[in-house]
Design goal:
Elements (H helix, E strand, L loop, with lengths): L2 E4 L9 H16 L3 E6 L8 H8 L5 E4 H4 L6 H10 L7 E5 L2 H10 L2 E4 L3 H12 L6
Parallel strand pairs: 1-2, 1-4, 2-3, 4-5
Protein name: HAD family hydrolase
InterPro entries: HAD-like_sf, HAD-SF_hydro_IA, HAD_sf
Pfam families: Hydrolase
């Protein structure tokens, strides 16, 4: 696995401390050669600047918003667009999402799926998949 694709609402939009932990995890993943992206079913437009900031600040490599790419999770086209944006195939990517329907759709499309419920549980799975070490 070489790509980490994460949902925004319900995953990355938590409390400030949790966002800091995600940012540290993204930095460790990128240092380990992992490409990173946010894939959100957000319609886009000016209200999505909060999400785009993650890419503008270099925290993730790409931000994809369904309203701008013309496909929503769990459609296979949404996952394909995210993988393409980080120059990988879906079979080389992991999706982290708080919706079981999106995780299932990702798995059916060829990605590895991680159901997000709490950071401490998800970080264990992500670190194991990508062979990342550290405290997050």
């Amino acid at each position: 696995m070489r790509g980490l694709i994460v949902d925004f609402v319900g995953v990355l939009d938590g409390p400030e401390e949790e966002q800091r932990r995600w940012k540290d995890l993204f930095a460790a993943a990128k240092a380990n050669g992992v490409a990173t992206a946010i894939l959100s079913n957000n319609p886009g437009g000016p209200a999505a600047e909060e999400i785009r900031e993650w890419e503008y600040r270099g925290i993730v490599d790409a931000v994809l918003l369904s309203g701008e790419i013309g496909a929503e999770k769990p459609e296979p086209a949404a996952f394909a667009a995210a993988a393409e944006a980080i120059e990988l195939t879906v079979n080389d990517c992991v999706l982290v999402d708080d919706s079981i329907l999106n995780v299932r759709g990702a798995v059916e499309a060829g990605l590895v799926g991680v159901l997000y419920q709490v950071f401490d549980r998800a970080v264990i799975e992500i670190c194991a998949i990508f062979d990342i070490e550290g405290e997050f």
